Amino acid sequence: MPALPPQPGRPGAPAPRRAPDAAPARRTALAEGVDQLRAAATTEPGRLRAIGALLALLVVAFGAVTAWQTDSRASAADDVLHHSQPLSSDAADIYRSLADANTMAATGYLAGLQETQATRDQYELDIRTAASKLVTAAANTDPGSSSAGIITDLNELLPQYKGLVESARANNRQGFPVGGAYLRAANDTMQTKMLPKAQELYKNENARLSTDYGNATPYPWFAIALGLVALGGLAWAQRRNYQRTNRVLNHGLVAASATTAVVLLWVVVGHTVARAGLNDSYDHGVKSLNVLHDARIASLKARSDENLTLVSRGAETHELADGTVMDAYDWGYDQEIATLGKGLKLADSLADDSAGRKPVAVANSSMTVWISRHKQVSSDNNAGDYQKARDGVIGKDGATAECFQAVDASLDQALNHETKEFQRSAGDGLDAMTGLTVGAAVLAVLGAAGAVLGIGRRLSEYR
Amino acid sequence: MKGGVTMRARNDFLRRLRAVRRLRISLRGWGGVGAMAVVCVLAVAFVLLLPLTQSRGEAGADLGGQRTTQGVQARAPKCDESTIQNQSPAPSDAGGTTIDAIKARGVLKVGVDQNSYRWGYRDPNSAKGDLAGFDIDLVTAIAKNIFGSAYTDKSIQFLAIPTNERIPAIQKNRVDMVVRTMTITCKRAGQVAFSAPYFVTGQQVLAPKVSSITGYNDTLANKRVCSAKTSTANDSLNADKGKKIPASVTIMDPVPNQLDCLVKLQLGEADAVVTDGALAASQAAQDPTVELKGSPFTTEYYGVAMNLKATDLVRRVNRILETYRTSPSGWRASYTKWLLPTLRADSKSANPPVPQYK
User: Fold this and answer.
1) Number of H helices, E strands in chain A
2) Which of A107, A176, A326 to probe the B interface (max B CBs under 10 A)?
């Protein structure tokens, strides 16, 4: 069936026919506008109208960009002060509460029947604090993020931990040494699973804080550049006006220049002050807070290890590189005390005033006493005088308990001080940006109106 | 008559055949008798040799061992784990430099465990937090004998020694002796001197009373079994997996301390614990829902460990143990107080081991 012949060019056929149909030029609105402008530009009133429109546009654009850029910075600065720092502080609280709960559990266990109500209450309070702050943290976390995973894990581990501590307590009351094994299991859960996670959460929140700082502190270069262009345009327009009419001042244009200059100055000065405040809050607040939090955790861990050395009674050992075998918890204590010492040294160098240095110095001297008393406890324990060693740790007078409490209290004081420093500096920074957004917008509208009025006054001379 | 001749010839042949058979059988019989005779001669020789070598039983075993398994023993030349507990020197009341030094010091330094319930543990509810248990009773008996009328409640210094520090503590003279559920083994016997055994036990399975596990056998199939790091139990489990016990047994990661196994058992993370019977009994005493399953599958002896040079002290301890085993207020009373409830009276641990000396 060779019936189908080739059918060339059939779909293409109408095209050449239609092309001549479109011949009468249908021009775009833009092209028409350009033509109209070109036609208008041949006359002075036309040129003036164009100049006026351009100037008004520049000033308004400057105002808008300034408002937008300062608003994003002000809200980032506001986040630093009211959102990310509090969350970072909450994460630090979770971290601290967990470490503190573990310390209280170990102390209470070691005391056995003489466990004080205060220790027990503190333990319960720590657990409650951690649980409730985990809820706050969860509410401020994006689902699926690494922080969300950590919070889920911590929420699962917390009841497990508490179960182990309660089993330890119950067995201890029966006089069963397996209670000590439960407490070691609880401590292991805390120190190897929960605290590292809490630390990661704290680091994540600190990263968020850093991001907010990063968003709050750069200069709004685009707005500043636009401001300079607007000022330049206004100057040029006035010079042109002067050359053509010999009039020195055009009130409208002068007003527009003045408002633009004010907004520009405001933006630059306001940001410089805000940056200074925020940078100060970071250098002296956030950095100090981080170091102090770390030092406090180290002191808590050292304290729980010190208690556990006497609870464990040689059940777990750690072999040093040279083959010496040490009690695992005594070794842990040495590590944490060393970390505490380093942290306090760093905190002292970061503190920017005597009010900040003083509690750190107190903590440091308490730590020194702690170390010397701990040596005595160790030698008592190694000599087999268990009762004396126990009294040396949890007893009333001359025990390491006093030293630990002194370190903890002074670190708490230092943390409060640095938190206040932070809030003051960051608050100052935020205050420097107050009204900038609205002010820039209002002034820019006024400036644009001035420019339009100024040009309008010249225009009216042609009617 | 032809038939009669052939008949006789056939009978002759049969008779001869029977005689050969009888000879073979009688020869075989003589072989057995001969073997018995050799054994008798050997036995007589052993009996005669015993007083001369001043060693009982195990000397014979050694001799026999050397004769029969010379080639096999090349790798482990002298020590036999099954008789190592009999290598302690004979008891003596004599003094010596070590005993004199202890008396001069006025304090006996003893390495003990503080976490083994019923063996050596601190009662958290006693105001003074004193140590108590089967091992502690023995230490007290030893100290009372050494110090005599000078004994006071300050005569003993108890030092908590971790399991892996027992031998170094003795070698470095940090303690005079270690009384801490310490099994006498060949390896240890080369590093420290042991007293005669004061307790016999063996590796045993501990599981919940309701568990289907009946002992160290096939009932462990598909079960998770806990043991302590570097323990005999852990070694046995790894060696017996797929042989004495099914290959489907999950041997859990060894824990730092045997008590951690009880925690895992109670938390449902383990189905059974393998440890020596004494410690298993100590665990069972802390939880009424678990019990010892089956009988011990090894035999181990506990001894008091001392410095290799302190022979006078070792002999004295052996003398003290002699009295301690028989005295009504000694071994028996201590066993009844601490161990009878969980080990019961029919256990092979229920009687003190009969000592033999070098």
Assistant:
1) 16, 2
2) A176
> So what's the ipTM on this one?
0.74
Name the pTM for this structure.
Answer: 0.78
Nearest chain A Cα to B127, which residue? A113
List pLDDT tens digits, range A186-234. 999 999 999 999 999 999 998 999 899 999 999 999 999 999 999 999 9
Domain boundaries, chain B: 2-78, 85-200+301-350, 203-293
The pairs formed by A352-358 with CB atoms below 8 angstroms and a separation of 24 or more are A352/A284, A352/A421, A355/A417, A356/A284, A356/A288, A356/A414, A356/A417, A356/A418, A356/A421
Tell me the backbone φ, ψ of residue B206, rounded to 5 degrees: -120, 130
B85-200+301-350 matches B203-293 in fold: yes
**A387 and B123: CB-CB below 8 Å?**
no
How far is it, in rounded angstroms, from Cα A451 to Cα A255? 8
Residue of B nearest to A109 (CA): B124
Pairing of strands B177-178, B108-112: parallel
Q: Where are the domains of chain A?
A: 47-460
Q: Is the pLDDT of residue A122 over 60?
A: yes
Comparing alpha-carbon positions, the chain A residue that sits nearest to B229 is A316
Which residues does B54 contact at the CB level (< 8 Å), separation at least 6? Answer: B90, B358
Tokens of A109: 């266990």
pLDDT digits (tens, 9 = 90+) for A85-105: 889 989 999 999 999 999 999
**Nearest-by-Cβ selection for A325 from B129, B162, B266:** B162
Chain A positions touching B283 (Cβ under 8 A) are 178
Contacts of B302 (CB under 8 A, 6+ apart): B181, B182, B183, B184, B197, B198, B199, B200, B201, B278
CB < 8 Å to A382, chain B: 159
Class of domain B203-293: alpha beta
Q: Count CB pairs under 8 A between chains A and B.
A: 92
Residue B286 sits at the chain A interface (C-beta within 8 Å):
yes
- Both tokens of B157, joined, read 């210094």
Cβ(B164)–Cβ(B113) below 8 Å:
no
Q: B73 pLDDT band (50/70/90 cuts)?
A: very low
SS3 of chain A: helix, strand, coil, percent, to 5: 85, 0, 15
- Name the one residue in this structure whose structure tokens are 């190592």: B84
Measured from the Cβ of residue B289, the count of other Cβ atoms closer than 10 Å reads 11
Measured CA distances, B64 to A110, A358, B49 (Å): 56, 81, 13
Residue A294 CA to residue A281 CA, distance in Å, equals 19
The rounded distance, in Å, linking the Cα atoms of B272 and B275 is 10
Single-letter amino acid code for the residue at B230: T
Q: Report d(CA A326, CA B169) in Å as an integer.
A: 12
DSSP symbols for A65-109: HHHHHHHHHHHHHHHIIIIIHHHHHHHHHHHHHHHHHHHHHHHHH
- C-beta neighbour count of A450 within 10 angstroms: 25
CB-nearest to A175 from B123, B256, B257 is B123
Lowest mean pLDDT among A181-195, A421-435, B31-45, B135-149: B31-45
B305 touches chain A (CB under 8 A): no
- The region, left, alpha or beta by phi > 0 then psi within -120 to 50, assigned to residue A221 is alpha
Q: Are A336 and A301 in contact (CB under 8 A)?
A: yes
Taking the CA of residue B78 and the nearest CA in chain A, the distance in Å comes to 30
DSSP character string of A420-445: HHHHHHHHHHHHHTTTHHHHHHHHHH
- Specify the CATH architecture of the domain B85-200+301-350: 3-Layer(aba) Sandwich (3.40)
Q: In the predicted model, what is the mean pLDDT of chain A?
A: 89
Q: What is the pLDDT of residues A328-352, one digit of tens each?
A: 999 999 999 999 999 999 999 998 8
